[in-house]
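pls ignore typos typing on phone
L-rhamnitol + seq
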Amino acid sequence: MSYMEAKARYAALGVDADAAIARLAAVPVSIHCWQGDDVRGFDTDPSKPLTGGIQTTGNYPGRARTPEELMADFDRVLALCPGTKKISLHASYAIFEDGEWADRDKLEPKHFRRWVEYCKARGIGADFNPTFFSHPKCDPLTLSSPNEETRRFWIEHGKACIRISSYLAEELGQPCVMNIWTGDGFKDIPADRMGPRVRYREAIDEILSEPYDFAKVKPCIESKVFGIGVEAYTVGSAEFALSYAAANMDKCIPLMDNGHYHPTEVVSDKIPALLAFFPEIALHITRPIRWDSDHVVLFDDETREMAKEIVRCGGLDGRVNIALDYFDASINRVAAWVLGVRNVQKALLYALLTPNEAMKQMQDGGDFTSLLVRQEELKTLPFGEVWDEYCCRCGVPQDGAWLPEVKQYEKDVLMARV
Ligand code: RNT
Ligand code: ZN
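k done
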């Protein structure tokens, strides 16, 4: 079947495939830099384990070890993924030059100058994340620590990150989403659950007292249910993060990571719930298997359902900031990166090819029989042809053609790193 035939099938349901393609091509999707190096960054000893309840598993060869290697790998991702891309950086990816080094509380915009040059040369925007983990100053708590000195260090880190985010937004002419997540929590049942949360709340207040233009820098609060080693209690729980964002709507937005909820909860259903109150929200799209395992994102039911809610709720008009967050070290990292990004793009295209208005009318008219039948029949429409056409118009390889390029890159570049 050709694209023209597929287009006609969708047109029969009132869906304009050309319009869907054009719409998606303009939507920024933020690609996390940390899939390339197992969340190691450049500012601490790479042989030390990750902390904060996150973990990469696998030791596939070819991890990026330097800014140059990570940038080269990210270039492969950019070349193989359709759509409008942003890069999501962590503070730990600061680039120090001439033997200089700065601790996290002393980071400055200049430590991200080379990332700005990188983004400018490729015409992409950047998002930012303070790094409140994998550092000797995690005691193990950070912003919620009872230790004044520890807390002060991490508050200063947060403020430095606001300044860096302003710099990125200013230089690149695009808003910078700055996500606050800490792995603060306890392995076993705490005696005081409220104290850490009150300290966390006050610490975020202090961070957000650093001046910034909310139209350009968008601080987010990311919640989490639990992490490895912090199974009993998480300071930044769902209720905490959502309440903070709701009480400070003029300063920040909530961020939902779909690996951060109980296994039967779905973020797809939470998207419209939050959008009924918040003008803007942010997402980390990942794939949890039994826990926040951060597997490569698939073109699966829940990813599609999240994409549908983003599209239906006007999320593509700037109300939903879409970002990816996963890290698999057990397979080729560039392939893992590209596959997840392409799957998010696929899910968004699939959602844009859904006759949402007609289906809403079925729901509102009480015709649930037609609605169920329509939903099922949509699944076997010729989506692949439209996806191929989208890749073609974006100038990137179609399915089947990108993996050979990654394999060649592995042979030429990644294997030489061992
Ligand atoms: C951890 C959070 C957080 C991190 C990144 C590296 O569970 O999802 O967003 O994955 O900041
Ligand atoms: Zn996340």
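The longest strand covers residues 84-90. The chain is about 40% helix and 15% strand. more later
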